[in-house]
């Protein structure tokens, strides 16, 4: 079946023109064959800026959590963490433990249901763990500490050794030096969610990837750890990371998560996955609007990337990212050859 994927091309191009960005990319694989590779614009707003191209590296923002998810699943699979329902204090050094952490489990951290808020350097609770959902950064800081304590390795060490080296992915990592292949992050001067770091242990937000490398990461999940016909990653690790682990919330509006990944189980008002996307799909989205969507039932891996950070006024990021997946499904469903 030949699909033009015109709808999703138009969707990404429209987002490119809506965001405060200078460049964009779209990579789409169907049945393990690349069907779309398209680039728009340039890597910065400077005169004579380098054009967006295959090796351009985009800031991943929260999409990095898909790699952190791997480190968590790796630690569980190999017994460094016994259970996702263990309290986090079991895996924190004595000086890191706090009374406010009592009752919070690994499950709560990886599904954004921990209830912690970090205000003026102090941990507080805005709701009891497991009773609601809130997207905050404190869980990543704690997960990084837990991984270090449990495995005696940091997140970047695990991901580099277990993923990047075996797959020969040379355009993805945490970076503290940038060269001409990096897209400049277009943002407001006082953007409150932005932070820059020289730390490359995997705990910080300074992760970049080319769109083609990021798509390979998605293909690894689609193919249960196989890469070029070889089993490089245990399938149980990837399955663990992309299976729904959210508590049974009393409200049906809250998203369903695997290990940080959004996973399509049922229709949720606050989910970022489109209504037309079938169950079993999983997606990760960053504040740069970079998105990786895997639809196993349709054998789809799709990446869109932009060099923005934040959202312009009146931009509905949920509606926009849902339209990304829905456009793919419309392309497949209404293809002339389908």
SSE inventory with pairings:
Elements: H1 6-18, E1 23-30, E2 33-41, E3 57-59, H2 65-77, H3 106-110, E4 116-119, E5 122-125, H4 138-151, H5 155-167, E6 172-174, E7 207-210, H6 211-222, E8 226-227, E9 230-231, H7 235-241, E10 262-263, E11 282-285, E12 291-295, E13 300-306, H8 317-333
Antiparallel strand pairs: 1-2, 1-13, 3-7, 4-5, 6-7, 8-9, 10-11, 11-12, 12-13
Protein model, in words:
The structure is a single chain. This protein has 338 residues and is an alpha+beta fold. It is globular and about 55 Å long. It has helices at 6-18, 65-77, 106-110, 138-151, 155-167, 211-222, 235-241, 317-333; strands at 23-30, 33-41, 57-59, 116-119, 122-125, 172-174, 207-210, 226-227, 230-231, 262-263, 282-285, 291-295, 300-306. It starts with 5 loop residues before the first helix and ends in a 5-residue tail after the last helix. The strands form four sheets. The chain has a six-stranded antiparallel β-sheet with strand order 2-1-13-12-11-10, sandwiched between helices. It has a three-stranded antiparallel β-sheet with strand order 3-7-6. The model has no long low-confidence stretch (mean pLDDT 95).
Question: Can you give the mean pLDDT?
Answer: 95
Q: SSE order, as H and E?
A: HEEEHHEEHHEEHEEHEEEEH
Query: Could you say which structural class the secondary elements and strand pairing correspond to?
Result: alpha+beta
Estimate the helix proportion, in percent.
Answer: 25-40%
Beta strand %: 15-25%
Measured between the Cα atoms of the first and last residue, the distance is 6 Å
Uncertain regions: pLDDT < 50 for 5+ in a row? none
* Largest sheet: spatial strand order: 2-1-13-12-11-10
The overall strand count is: 13
Q: Work out the radius of gyration.
A: 19 Å
The geometry reads as: globular
Main β sheet profile: 6 strands, antiparallel
